[in-house]
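A note from the maintainers: we've had questions about how concatenated examples are separated. There is no special marker in the raw files; a new sequence line simply starts the next protein. For clarity in this README we add a label.
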Amino acid sequence: MVQKSFHELPADEHAEFEAACTRHGFVREDFDVSAEEGLPLDGGPHSHHIHRKITVARVTRSEIQIYPAGPGTSWTVAFERDLEQDVFGFPLAD
């Protein structure tokens, strides 16, 4: 398994994540984002698919969410849904 930080994720995921933050009053720096890659999919021992999980933690609070990522998934959509439901709390006032 390989651990990656936010800046090592694909550029489209950066843009989608940052856009979701902006739409809900957050900034990218409000969150610590990391990825774990090389996890086998639930396809048994002969599965050759690469699976990732993305961990998003609110820097100033204790909220942490883990999102599955890989073919057919969009963790940034799930992250934005959590922002809409205030899972990570509210943005800090300027």
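[label: protein 2]
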Amino acid sequence: MARMIFQSPSKYVQGAGVLKDLGEETNKLSKKPLVIADDMVWSITSETITNSFENSNIDFEYEAFNGEASEKEIDRLSEVAKSKEADAVVGIGGGKTLDTAKAIADSLEAPVIIVPTTASTDAPSSSLSVIYSESGEFTGYKFYDKNPDLIIIDSQVVVNAPIKLFASGMSDAMATLVEARAALKSHGENMVGGQPTLASIAIAEKCEETLFTYGDSAYRAASKGLVTPHVEAVIEANTLLSGLGFENGGLAAAHAIHNGFTSLSGEIHNLSHGEKVTYGTLVQLVLENASDETLHKYIDFYKSIGMPTTLKEMHLENTSFEDLVKVGELATDPGDTFSNLSDKITPEEIANAILAVNEISISNK
């Protein structure tokens, strides 16, 4: 009998102004953490975080993250953590910073505290990291025995970030139910090595419902730096619901195609994770033989929040069919998650679906 597995973070804290509580919350887990963030994020958050740690008598060390969640960077920062005798790792920033923090903490066998400064991905809550080469090409996943010990996300910080990141998180989250449903149907494995649970599917359904119900108004409020109940709901959907849903429900083609896009060169690498997942989700829907009504519903949603639904918007209008086949080849790598949709679909069929999404979107009124 197949076993079902469900994992989750130990604690999740969300709200406007909660960054000032980081020291108090960290104090329950650590006295000497290593803090990592990129220079831009640190310039925005350092004053609040430093004051918060000082008020809680926490002796922390800061080290700049270089921007890529690569094995080389993980190894470098792990050595820094060991040399500083850090007893925990605090990651502050976007998905790659947070994935790197999780990897460092795993190498130290220490607690990890996750502080997202955007709601741009569902990376914060998961027990895995997406790993890239130094040049930004997807190389695989790292899996851990546990999820983060603490996630603390300040809604005011999130809405002060570029609105494109908020929209990207909505697009990443919109893939959650599409992929979990495919994994359930195919009897595929989730990201923690078990079958999708009823709870994970219910969470994925609530995630999508929240986005379709509140997404437009949340997007418009967040674009003005406003924290409203709709914004709070979408931050939770982007960060917690999507994270729990994808990890325990499973990934399928949408994220595998995102990973396939990393095989290409050019301006596509300037797009966010969520932007590439947007197109991957639409490709999965085409491959699933979704109805016209369903496709147009998703395309309309993505267009309303400025996400790419055409090859031109993906900077791929001049990409050859052969290169799109290469996307399909990387997407269907046995180490990725495409088989949760099907193990019968060929790279050529994926290339055709990529082209079909473009035509459907262009004709969508």
